[in-house]
Amino acid sequence: MLNQMSQAEFTAVLGSIFEHTPEIAAKAWRSQPFADVQNLHQVMAAIALKMSETEQLKLICAHPDLGCKFKMAEASVQEQSTVGLDQLSATEYNRFQQLNQNYKDKFSFPFIIAVRNNTKDSILAAFEQRLENNLEVEQKQAIAEIVEIARWRLILSISN
Description:
This protein is mainly alpha-helical. The protein has helices spanning 7-14, 23-29, 37-50, 53-61, 74-81, 90-107, 120-130, 135-159.
């Protein structure tokens, strides 16, 4: 079905796979036909990985803070709810907010992790560990996490 869509239709359906960055889907459309979801993900991931540093930073910054109560993309709401980040106690909420702030103070972009591969505890542990990274390492890690988030989003969107 995806292989028969126009670029506009394809982008409308898959434009949110990479948070607020529909141009990745628009560019991926040009690589049709796709053998399967894995092939489509590889094409989209390659596009994200080849983006300029400025474009990658914009992609990273499009993601919401973990455990925040602000408006975010529906996919992010669903992902965060899978590990209970939408039901944090006051203490947990404050901990997440402090870690989010510490992380943004150090790196100037939000902490990104593929929550579907984690638990609340493993996310907190990753926060602590990754705060020890330097900017270059963390920027690469953030993009790797975004690529994994996109893989999950593709799998779930295609199966629905």
